[in-house]
């Protein structure tokens, strides 16, 4: 074959392949349009049957039963339907689905389904509720898909059975999970359920600064006052991110015993810590720290000035007095402007 | 006449060299596109888009960080109220809309004040990024998500800087006031910030052409194919640019542009690089390149992500005159950024961004149009002179077109396989026709427009040129 012929063959193969690809896509779309219509009709039928279940229609279970063999469409419909009902109605509908054998069917899809199916199945599984589901979710944590693992753990946390904080930390340590914002939410649920375990986990030596910050944030949101000493200790950590999380946590707990730690935070070298300190003083209503907070009104960092003004606004008369004094003090123009803006925002 | 023979030989050699350079460039570009197609297909298959908005809410709402939507407006009195209403109706747990009236000469500010019952307010803000003087802030108790900033005119970059200064959210979203956002756009685009909060600094979203779509109250309610041929060709072009090229480059951490029509940024990261740059028409690309440069220099791990799902719709020009101005301007913007950051070109210090990202701009944007136009002019000339073999010319041209069609169809196939937003098989067939057609004339004209952009860059031309839009109200 001459080089000219070869070039022409390549050109024709490319054009032919593109035309064949196009035709295939159009044909596939025609088939999918029919399937999509069927699927929409199926979902509608499932939701009507679930509504029927709630109204006590005996035939509703018979309508749903065949769909257990097609758990994906059932899972999608369950997720839609579950968002519409609450309380006893939800439990009745989900209980009926459990009795139809949906749990093992979904478990099969978690293992053998496509990526999308695996995730939808584990989310639908979590929606079903009940002890059997918790066991299934614990098995799903072993999935190779990190999204499925995270969804299973989130499902367990939402069902009031999160893994322990230490176990959650292990998942990140082994690379099974990444410290996403969803992970942080689950950590908050886990620590709120077992603050003592959270405190114990804080003593681990294998934690990175990031994971310590995540844990401290969860402890701060747990409402457990026994975390105050540990948070106060963490507020002296060499890592600014850890100190910031600890100070924020103390602000959320709003415990007067944290006053000396928060006072120290107001003069921290890291602006994120000073800003968190001002915010925490305002949240905890530590009126006696108002002068120290007012000193931050001419901090070099805008966020600190803003948080200081905001905090003073929350400290009642004492805070407002500091703001008014700063607003009148022409010798500190930066503080004056910050105080004026804070007073204007407070109204 | 040995001198004449030598001269003829030199001309033939020169012609051959030019021809091979053009062919090699064309093949290199096509190989690059094929590579992008493969990367994009892998990205889509490994992270398939979520079709149901309710599922997105379930997955991300609890963990979603607050976002400030920044909408710069200049002389938008006719459309601004509807645009803002549609922004306020977005589905996202925590967001605020900061509309910046960039010194409009019409009634933009007044119509906003009247429509939303706004009154002057005070807000503590820092001039962290440079912007023109802010004349006033307006808000209303019954619209707690809305803040209107009235400032002196300074251009889009300046208006965005003002909005960043006033934002108190960790994430800011840049957009055009006339962009149409999907109702779940923020939920979709925020996913990388939720999944990888430590590293993610920016997220781009897919922009689609709204021409031919049914639009109601600032939303695309029914996707359609444009009736105007120019807009139809741009539909294919946008699919190739967003669903293929940007998704592919984001997968290998070399994405150098996030469209100004929609992009999410970590506010602190934007402040760290000094905000949007003034004095360029490509401020969107410039910002992303600055972010890359900043984090590469600091050797800090970071991520510029891209979401393939359509999050924003824009009106495409339907006349050659307007389109040519837009393309020349885009090209000028790309060149401005490229040469402003020329120290990054093929510089291993900047890793893949220097080598692949800037290398790609060099081959495709800087040299590509020049060499291609060179080819269009010289190769027929050489053929007329009888120094090139016409049989080979036709064959190679056929290969180039074959590649072009495969790539355009590939981009359409990605859309059809993973997103399937076009309504039916007929619309697909129409777009496939456009995917073939665009190789015969449209691509070549585009190169001339880009060359004009190069000329404007070299001569230091300023301004945006007149950008006339039909407006969404006239859409079917």
UniProtKB/TrEMBL annotation, chain A:
PROSITE patterns: HEAT_REPEAT. GO terms for molecular function: oxidoreductase activity. Catalyzes the hydroxylation of the N(6)-(4-aminobutyl)-L-lysine intermediate produced by deoxyhypusine synthase/DHPS on a critical lysine of the eukaryotic translation initiation factor 5A/eIF-5A. This is the second step of the post-translational modification of that lysine into an unusual amino acid residue named hypusine. Hypusination is unique to mature eIF-5A factor and is essential for its function. This is HEAT repeat domain-containing protein. It comes from Caulobacter sp. 602-2.
TrEMBL record, chain B:
Pfam families: Glyco_tranf_2_3 (PF13641). The chain crosses the membrane at residues 350-379, 391-414. Coiled coil: none annotated. InterPro entries: Nucleotide-diphossugar_trans. Keywords: Glycosyltransferase, Membrane, Transferase, Transmembrane, Transmembrane helix. GO terms for molecular function: glycosyltransferase activity. PANTHER family: POLY-BETA-1,6-N-ACETYL-D-GLUCOSAMINE SYNTHASE (PTHR43630). Belongs to the glycosyltransferase 2 family. This is Glycosyltransferase family 2 protein. It comes from Caulobacter sp. 602-2. The lineage of its organism: Bacteria, Pseudomonadati, Pseudomonadota, Alphaproteobacteria, Caulobacterales.
């Amino acid at each position: 074959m001459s080089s000219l012929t070869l070039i022409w063959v390549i050109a024709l193969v490319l054009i032919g392949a593109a035309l064949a690809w196009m035709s295939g896509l159009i044909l596939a779309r025609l088939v999918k349009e029919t399937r999509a219509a069927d699927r929409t009709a199926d979902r509608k039928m499932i939701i009507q049957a679930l509504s029927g279940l709630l109204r006590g229609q005996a035939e509703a279970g018979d309508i749903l039963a065949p769909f257990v063999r097609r758990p994906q469409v059932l899972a999608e419909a369950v997720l839609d339907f579950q968002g519409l009902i609450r309380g006893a109605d939800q439990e009745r509908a989900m209980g009926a689905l459990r009795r139809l054998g949906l749990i093992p069917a979904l478990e099969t899809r978690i293992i053998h389904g496509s990526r999308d199916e695996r995730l939808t199945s584990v989310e639908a599984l979590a929606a079903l509720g009940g002890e059997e589901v918790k066991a299934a979710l614990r098995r799903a944590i072993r999935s190779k898909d990190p999204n499925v693992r995270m969804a299973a753990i989130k499902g367990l946390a939402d069902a009031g059975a999160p893994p322990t904080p230490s176990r959650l930390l292990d998942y990140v340590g082994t690379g099974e999970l990444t410290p996403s914002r969803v992970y942080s939410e689950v950590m908050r649920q886990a620590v709120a359920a077992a603050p003592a375990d959270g405190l114990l986990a804080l003593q681990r030596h294998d934690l990175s600064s990031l994971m310590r910050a995540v844990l401290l944030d969860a402890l701060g949101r747990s409402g457990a006052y026994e975390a105050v000493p540990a948070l106060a200790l963490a507020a002296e950590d060499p890592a600014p991110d850890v100190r910031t999380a600890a100070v924020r946590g103390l602000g959320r707990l709003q415990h007067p015993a944290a006053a000396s730690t928060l006072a120290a935070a107001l003069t921290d070298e890291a602006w994120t810590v000073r800003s968190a300190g001002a915010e925490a003083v305002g949240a905890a209503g530590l009126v006696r720290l108002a002068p120290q907070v007012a000193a931050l009104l001419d901090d070099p960092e805008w966020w600190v000035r803003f948080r200081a003004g905001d905090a003073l606004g929350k400290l009642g008369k004492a805070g407002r007095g500091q703001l008014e004094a700063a607003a009148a003090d022409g010798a500190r123009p930066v503080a004056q402007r910050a105080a004026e803006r804070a007073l204007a925002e407070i109204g | 006449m040995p001198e004449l023979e030598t001269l003829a030989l030199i001309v033939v050699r020169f012609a051959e060299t030019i021809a091979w350079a053009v062919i090699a460039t064309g093949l290199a570009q096509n190989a690059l596109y094929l590579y992008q197609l493969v990367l994009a297909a892998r990205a889509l298959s490994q992270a398939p888009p979520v079709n149901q908005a309710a599922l997105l809410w379930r997955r991300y709402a609890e963990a979603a960080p607050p976002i400030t939507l920044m909408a710069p407006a200049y002389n938008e009195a006719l459309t601004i109220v509807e645009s803002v209403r549609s922004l306020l109706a977005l589905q996202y747990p925590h967001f605020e809309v900061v509309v910046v009236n960039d010194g409009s000469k019409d009634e933009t500010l007044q119509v906003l004040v009247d429509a939303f019952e706004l009154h002057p307010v005070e807000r503590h803000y820092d001039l962290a990024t440079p912007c023109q003087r802010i004349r006033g802030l307006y808000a209303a108790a019954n619209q707690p998500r809305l803040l209107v900033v009235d400032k002196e005119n300074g251009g889009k970059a300046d208006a965005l800087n003002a909005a960043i200064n006033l934002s108190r959210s960790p994430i800011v979203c840049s957009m055009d006031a006339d962009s149409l956002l999907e109702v779940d756009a923020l939920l979709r685009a925020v996913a990388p910030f939720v999944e990888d909060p430590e590293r993610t600094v920016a997220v781009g979203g897919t922009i689609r052409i709204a021409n031919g779509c049914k639009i109601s109250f600032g939303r695309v309610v029914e996707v359609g194919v444009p009736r105007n041929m120019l807009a139809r060709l741009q539909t294919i072009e946008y699919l190739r640019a967003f669903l293929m090229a940007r998704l592919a480059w984001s997968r290998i951490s070399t994405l150098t542009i996030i469209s100004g029509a929609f992009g999410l940024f970590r506010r602190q990261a934007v402040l760290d690089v000094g905000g949007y740059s003034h004095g360029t028409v490509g401020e969107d690309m410039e910002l992303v390149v600055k972010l890359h440069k900043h984090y590469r220099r600091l050797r800090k791990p970071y991520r510029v992500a891209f979401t393939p799902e359509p999050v924003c719709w824009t009106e495409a020009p339907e006349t050659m005159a307007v389109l040519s101005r837009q393309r020349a301007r885009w090209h000028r913007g790309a060149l401005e950024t490229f040469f402003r950051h020329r120290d990054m070109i093929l510089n291993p210090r900047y890793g893949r961004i220097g080598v692949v990202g800037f290398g790609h701009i060099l081959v495709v944007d800087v040299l590509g149009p020049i060499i291609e136009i060179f080819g269009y002019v010289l190769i027929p000339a050489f053929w007329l002179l009888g120094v090139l073999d016409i049989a080979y010319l036709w064959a190679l041209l056929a290969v180039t077109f074959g590649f072009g069609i495969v790539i355009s169809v590939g981009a359409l196939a990605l859309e059809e396989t993973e997103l399937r937003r076009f309504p039916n098989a007929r619309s697909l067939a129409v777009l496939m026709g456009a995917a073939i057609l665009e190789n015969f004339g449209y691509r070549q004209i585009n190169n001339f427009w880009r060359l004009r952009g190069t000329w404007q860059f070299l001569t230091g031309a300023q301004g945006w040129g007149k950008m006339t839009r039909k407006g969404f109200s006239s859409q079917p």
